[in-house]
Amino acid sequence: MEWWQPLASVTAALLLAWIGLLITLLIAKPDRARLTEALRLLPDLLRLLRHLAADRELPRGVRLRLGLLLAYLALPFDLIPDFIPVLGYADDVIIVIAVLRSVVRQAGLEAVRRHWPGTDDGFAALSRLTGLSR
Q: Where do transmembrane segments lie in this chain (predicted)?
């Protein structure tokens, strides 16, 4: 077997995974109104993620997920570049929503509420966007 064959196989697998994720995001993308609402919550949401990741009362796995999410959001590249209308930011929103739902399942909604730095209206919007109150 040639040296380049495993490299080509890994590259093809990553490309297929990326295309699959892109298709999933196209299907699951939030509507423009929800995306706009999510972008308005972004500063409070970033503070929430940082506070939750620093909370020693939360399980280590939850804090690790939050730390990885913050690292992903800080990276200069995305799964879908931000210059692509709607979808460019939708991938970040979808990933944040998935991680927050996971945090609520393990740590409880009260932990998220305790660390929310914004207004009650902002928390209500966050709950609607992520389905946290369900």
A: 6-28
Q: Is residue 103 part of a domain?
A: yes
The closest alpha carbon to 107, from 68, 46, 57, 49, belongs to 57
At 64 the pLDDT is: 92
How do residues 3-12 score in pLDDT, each as one tens digit? Answer: 788 888 878 8
Task: Please identify every stretch of the chain with a pLDDT value under 50, giving residue numbers as ranges.
Answer: none
SS3 assignment, position 79: coil
- For residues 80 and 90, the answer to whether their CB atoms sit within 8 Å is yes
Domain count, the chain: 1
Domain that holds residue 80: 30-130
Residue 115 covered by a domain:
yes
